[in-house]
């Protein structure tokens, strides 16, 4: 029996790509929801649900996944700490793959960022993250940029909240502090997504860059995550687990 995959936000740009990738993977499209559709019915009639809607629906969708015992693939960015806690609570009952980015290349970027941060001391190497997206994007820094910052902080044995973020520098800011991670967000045109992590020391600079040219890479990764999650026990996962790196 093929896996029945539901798509929250099926009428959007990502929803259409997800529909195509579900078919390409040999799974069955169980249905989808638009802005005013019944999400309860979607979760009840699916074996797994992919959600690329927005942060405002994450808590309700996580609760529905837990209530119906359905794996949830969550790609919404900009979640608050309360919303992330609700997702983690749902993961006690069902598999949840929550990722800032479903591109395999970005998952590898996160892994490399963590390893490099572990051996490049913050006293000598400042970490700066520059990202650019299309002009319609509403959150900044992007979820992927924040995920990259978290990977750097994790490599240094701390959390991003402990390390601190420097973003939106303007005016007479004084010298750069040692330790915090810098973020710069660029917006314009129809850029799908570009992220660069720079480790800057007095004697050298090291840069890691990922560029997305087609949103389909996110859809392909999310469907791959759904097929993988359907075979997993309850837990909170991300793309490194899907790719066998966790």
CATH fold naming of the largest domain: Rossmann fold
Helix count? 9
For this entry, what is the oligomeric state of its chains?
single chain
**Which consecutive residue ranges, at least 5 long each, have pLDDT under 50?**
none
Task: Estimate percent helicity.
Answer: 25-40%
Domain Dihydrodipicolinate reductase C-terminal: 105-243
Subunit structure: Homotetramer.
Active site: 133, 137
InterPro entries: DapB_C, DapB_N, DapB_N_CS, DHDPR_bac, NAD(P)-bd_dom_sf
Task: Give the topology.
Blueprint: E1 4-8, H1 13-24, E2 28-33, H2 39-44, E3 48-51, H3 55-68, E4 72-74, H4 81-90, E5 95-98, H5 104-119, E6 126-133, H6 143-155, H7 160-163, E7 165-167, E8 181-187, E9 193-200, E10 205-212, H8 216-229, E11 235-237, H9 239-242
Parallel strand pairs: 1-2, 1-3, 3-4, 4-5, 5-11, 6-8, 7-8
Antiparallel strand pairs: 6-9, 9-10
Helix pairs in contact: 1-8, 3-4, 5-6
Describe the protein.
- This protein is an alpha/beta fold.
- The chain has two domains: 4-102 and 215-242, NAD(P)-binding Rossmann-like Domain (Rossmann fold); 104-212, 2-Layer Sandwich (Dihydrodipicolinate Reductase, domain 2).
- It has helices at residues 13-24, 39-44, 55-68, 81-90, 104-119, 143-155, 160-163, 216-229, 239-242; strands at 4-8, 28-33, 48-51, 72-74, 95-98, 126-133, 165-167, 181-187, 193-200, 205-212, 235-237.
- Strands 2-1-3-4-5-11 form a six-stranded parallel beta sheet, sandwiched between helices. The chain has a five-stranded mixed beta sheet with strand order 7-8-6-9-10.
- Helix 4 (81-90) links the parallel strand 4 (72-74) and strand 5 (95-98).
- The longest helix is centred in the middle third of the chain and has 16 residues, at 104-119.
- The radius of gyration is 19 Å and the shape is elongated.
- It starts with a strand and ends with a helix.
């Amino acid at each position: 029996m093929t896996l029945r995959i539901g798509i929250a936000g099926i009428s959007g740009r990502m929803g259409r790509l997800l529909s195509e990738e579900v078919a390409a993977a040999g799974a069955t499209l169980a249905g989808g929801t638009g802005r005013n559709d019944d999400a309860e019915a979607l979760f009840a009639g699916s074996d797994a649900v992919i959600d690329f809607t927005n942060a405002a629906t994450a808590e309700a969708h996580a609760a529905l996944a837990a209530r119906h015992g359905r794996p949830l693939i969550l790609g919404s960015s900009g979640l608050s700490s309360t919303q992330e806690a609700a997702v983690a609570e749902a993961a006690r009952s069902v598999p949840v793959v929550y990722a800032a980015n479903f591109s395999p290349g970005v998952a590898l970027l996160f892994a490399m960022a963590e390893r490099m941060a572990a051996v490049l001391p913050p006293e000598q190497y400042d970490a700066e993250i520059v990202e650019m997206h299309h002009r319609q994007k509403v959150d900044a820094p992007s979820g992927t940029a924040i995920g990259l910052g978290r990977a750097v902080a994790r490599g240094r044995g701390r959390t991003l909240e402990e390390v601190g973020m420097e973003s939106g520098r303007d005016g007479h800011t004084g010298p750069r502090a040692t330790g915090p991670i810098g973020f710069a967000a660029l917006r314009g045109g129809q850029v799908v997504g570009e992220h660069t992590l720079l480790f800057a020391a007095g004697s050298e600079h090291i840069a890691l860059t990922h560029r997305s040219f087609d949103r389909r890479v996110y859809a392909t990764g999310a469907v791959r995550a759904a097929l993988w999650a359907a075979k997993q026990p309850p837990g909170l996962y991300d793309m490194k687990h899907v790719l066998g790196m966790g």
